[in-house]
Design goal:
By secondary structure, the chain is of the alpha/beta class. Helices cover 46% and strands 16% of the residues. It has one domain (5-327): Aldolase class I (TIM Barrel, Alpha-Beta Barrel), CATH 3.20.20.70. The protein contains twelve helices and 13 strands. α5 packs parallel to α6 and α7 packs across α8 (217-226). The structure holds zinc ion (ZN).
């Protein structure tokens, strides 16, 4: 049975992005695949009145079950209202759809937005696949994110050895031909908790920490010039907070040289046409750090609520921090 996202109380990204580009802020796109993560996201967004994109990757869909995810998203809307958020603006988005069939299935299942990632394909095939998805999605008022340029790193089943920055000279043609609603670009962000190899980085002489290479803001600027006001998306934009890495490593974990995108660079990006910033790894790190610390302090605990509660609190703190201090999306959905 087909379900429209509108019946679930969800919204698509059209109006949300238009406002964000104009207002110089970015919408958080947080991945989720379990209840505690979703609770933390909804609590953080309801308290800060931030619009939000709930993202589900193909892997998460397989992990959590698509029917359950749909009702969880519907539940998120109702829960947000219960928390006093009168008009929650929540998007349910497919992250890195890799086929027309998957995107169609998500549209039919109540997603309000889908990404078709044809970035690994030759240009013309990416155009054709994206166009096909857009044709179907737009019939159901579902918005479509496409991708041009290849990110390095690993996120679920997306992996690439090399990073190819988006070519600004291609964007006008691509958007015109595909009619996509937003475009993920490659300017040096990367998936996962190991975004850069130590040899790509410099070291801070004081702290000994890795300092990653800066994002290619010149490429972003050139794209903005070609497509004024068009919504741009950044994937792989976790900051990999070193305090979480330290807690994990101090409590039996092993994450050597995990490094992310510095928040001041994301802050700068959020003020531009970048209107959606994807954050996944930071939530995983917050959860793992809290759980590892809890087990170190309470080795006798075995009720999952005992360690998932502090994990949820830590994730919520992290989400709020991103909304208030990095993206500037607070107060934009009252
Ligand atoms: Zn991604």
């Amino acid at each position: 049975m087909k379900v429209s996202f509108k019946d679930l109380g969800l919204v698509n990204t059209r109006e949300m992005f238009a406002k964000a580009v104009k207002g110089g802020y970015a919408i958080p796109a947080f991945n989720f695949n379990n209840m505690e993560q979703l609770q933390a996201i909804v609590q953080a967004c309801a308290e800060t009145k931030s619009p939000v994109i709930l993202q589900v990757s193909k892997g998460a869909r397989n992990y959590a079950n698509q029917t359950l995810l749909r009702y969880m998203a519907q539940g998120a809307v109702e829960y947000a209202k219960e928390l006093g958020w009168k008009r929650p603006q929540i998007v349910l988005h497919l992250d890195h759809g890799d086929s027309y069939e998957l995107c169609k299935s998500c549209v039919d299942f109540g997603f309000s937005s889908v990404m078709i990632d044809g970035s690994a394909l030759p240009y013309d095939e990416n155009v054709a696949l994206t166009r096909k998805v857009v044709n179907y999605a737009h019939k159901h008022d579902v918005t479509v994110e496409a991708e041009l340029g290849v990110l390095a790193g690993v996120e679920d089943e997306v992996s690439s050895e090399v990073s190819h920055y988006t070519k600004p000279e291609e964007v006008i043609d691509f958007v015109k031909k595909t009619k996509c609603d937003s475009l993920a670009i490659s300017i040096g962000t990367s998936h996962g908790a190991y975004k850069f190899k130590p040899e790509q980085c410099t070291r801070d002489p004081k702290t000994g920490r890795l300092v990653p290479p800066p994002l290619a803001f010149d490429v972003l600027k050139a794209i903005e010039k070609k497509l004024p006001g068009f919504p741009i998306v950044l994937h792989g934009s976790s900051s990999v907070p070193q305090e979480y890495v330290d807690i994990i490593n101090a409590n039996g974990g092993k994450l050597p040289d995990a490094v992310g995108i510095p928040e001041e660079q994301l802050r700068k990006a959020a003020k531009s046409a970048v209107c959606k910033i994807n954050i996944d790894s930071d939530s995983r790190l917050a959860m793992t750090a809290a759980i590892r610390q809890h087990f170190a302090e309470y080795p006798g605990h075995f009720d999952p609520r005992q360690y998932l509660k502090p994990a949820r609190e830590e994730m919520k703190k992290m989400y709020e921090h991103k909304i208030l201090n990095v993206l500037g999306s607070n107060g934009k959905a009252r």
